[in-house]
Write a structure and sequence with these properties.
With 275 residues, the protein is an alpha/beta fold. It has nine helices and 17 strands. A seven-stranded mixed β-sheet has the order 12-11-10-9-13-14-17, with helices on both faces. A five-stranded antiparallel β-sheet has the order 5-6-2-1-7. A three-stranded antiparallel β-sheet has the order 4-3-8. The chain starts with a strand and ends with a helix. 43% of the residues are buried. The chain binds flavin-adenine dinucleotide (FAD), FE2/S2 (inorganic) cluster and magnesium ion. Flavin-adenine dinucleotide (FAD) binds at residues 33, 45-48, 61-64, 66-70, 108, 111, 212-215, 241, 257-258, 261, 264, 268.
Length: 275
Amino acid sequence: MFEILAMELLAPKIKRAEISAPLVARHARAGQFIILRLHEKGERIPLTLFKTDKEKGTVQIVFKENGKTTHQLGGLQPGDHILDVVGPLGKPTHVENFGTVVVIGGGVGSPIAYAVAKALREGGNHIIGIIGFRSQNLVVLEEDMREVCHELLVSTDDGSYGKKGFTTHVLQELVDAGRKIDYVFSVGPVLMMKATAEITHRHEIKTVSSVNPIMVDGTGMCGACRVCTKQGIQFACVDGPEFDAHEIDYDELFQRLNEYQKEEQQALERYLEES
Ligand code: FAD
Ligand code: FES
Ligand code: MG
């Protein structure tokens, strides 16, 4: 059992949890994730490691209350326990000295953008962060990102805070302004990652996307997290979650992510009624 040490509301439906998980914390590296199972009848869901503290033996996650399981997780309080926390899973972020790196996080992609920006900065890169949200009230992790980025640009779709528009508009502006960009990392909604990859492909900038397909076992056995790339079929839990952004079939990824929407909606409605 894994104890919840903190549960904090960061923005509507977006929470940060700190969990006691000494073995995960000891081995975790940037870009990796955990798979949680809240209780015996619970499903398994993957969440990115936002921060880890080896000394305290704790990990932090930032998550959106999306459907049934994330609502249930968000309902837990300090002192409550989670049945399983498996990890760290996935390949760690590839870190080398690329030069100037743009790290883009859309919505709840921001916790992974933070972990990756921190690692790439420690690897000697100049980091330009771009984080984007629908609206000002949904902006999270801005201060954390400021700490690990040399420059940070915030955008909101409706212009209520920072630059108006999508993260891709901000990236395009940097490119148009002639900024030297050696490498781009992007994580967030599939359509955002696809649009980012289109821009960087045109400008021949090496780019990596951290993808988020449905996962079940996290060990490469079940096949749920299949991602089609130009290299063939890959499994995000063991081969990823980072892949060459110019090689991913984003349309297939998008379609697979939405495959169970009807059942997920029903499960959430039942859960909300019962609780
Ligand atoms: P549901 O209503 O069951 O599903 C809502 C939507 O979430 C679905 O339509 C589907 O697109 C997706 N989803 C559902 N089940 C899964 C599953 N088992 N695996 C993956 N996606 C699923 N979200 C965050 O808020 N913060 C994170 O740091 C984060 N990190 C992730 C890291 C990885 C490697 C992956 C693959 C996903 C990550 N997610 C993260 C997404 C998170 O796993 C889903 O939001 C969560 O599983 C939804 O579960 P639910 O029961 O609450 O919602
Ligand atoms: Fe089962 Fe990746 S989650 S193969
Ligand atoms: Mg679910």
